[in-house]
């Protein structure tokens, strides 16, 4: 079959897929975000291929190269040249894990889309279980980790804290201890494409859209090689995206805290003014007043800070930039189903 390399300066708008005209309809699409994963790609491919082959139906492996700075790109191009099932999306720079997943989902044409990390922390063999649950009529099958091996204690604790606080803060039922490793039915994927928000927290969006969802459990392995691409800074950004995307409670919390502190400061002020009447001691008024001023200002700062988060998001949406920019793509049809440029 003709395999072509198309170049798009800008990512075409992601629209719902019409039926693809290819001869062999892809049944499963595996989306693999890749950022500096040169050490793991070959093994990841082998293990994914082994698993997908056992399903006995046509599949595609969509590697989304998220602006890797190592030789991941060259490795992927070599895989593309040797394997029929491999497709590659090359981002023009690093756009982040969540965007990479979204791009892969945009370009996936299978009836079921499976998102899996490249680093083999998510065992590819679990895909078989997911497919089974999907065949039984579930639209989303997410993998819930029971144990996280290999991750540092710090990572485990921060992750646990993150999932729990997200659960408290948001009204959307986002399952705890679930990463992006999941199977998504074509129809759910189509709905996801319609969600254009930029600060994406994909697993939250998947929960938000609904449909029949279920979990399969697994033990999270250690990374096969390389190191995590989620340093503290990125984890903080992800959690802030998650919380501001799926909860308005921080805004309300600021309001409550503000109200309580305002009340407290009134009491304090009143106390400071009345105390000399009873004790006859010198005036601590200046001190009290100073404290009150600091109090009030800190409330304002907190509130403004939180508001700023939301305003920043509004700003981000209003700019309406494309979610990502493709430098090149390998293995997708030329007149792409995504409406061309
Ligand atoms: N990743 C990505 N873009 C990024 C960071 C990570 O595509 O900016 C990919 C990475 O290659 C891996 C997956 O996202 O396939 C998860 O990243 P990682 O394993 O570093 O995260 P962790 O498992 O430590 O949370
Ligand atoms: Mg990992």
TrEMBL record:
Q: Which ranges carry the Glycosyltransferase 2-like domain?
A: 29-189
Q: Please state where this protein is localized.
A: Membrane
List the Pfam families.
Glycos_transf_2 (PF00535)
Q: Where are the transmembrane segments?
A: 254-279, 285-312
Recorded topology in the membrane? Multi-pass membrane protein
Q: Which InterPro entries match?
A: Glyco_trans_2-like (IPR001173), Glycosyltransferase_2 (IPR050256), Nucleotide-diphossugar_trans (IPR029044)
Name the UniProt record assigns to this protein: Glycosyltransferase family 2 protein
Provide the species name: Alicyclobacillus fastidiosus
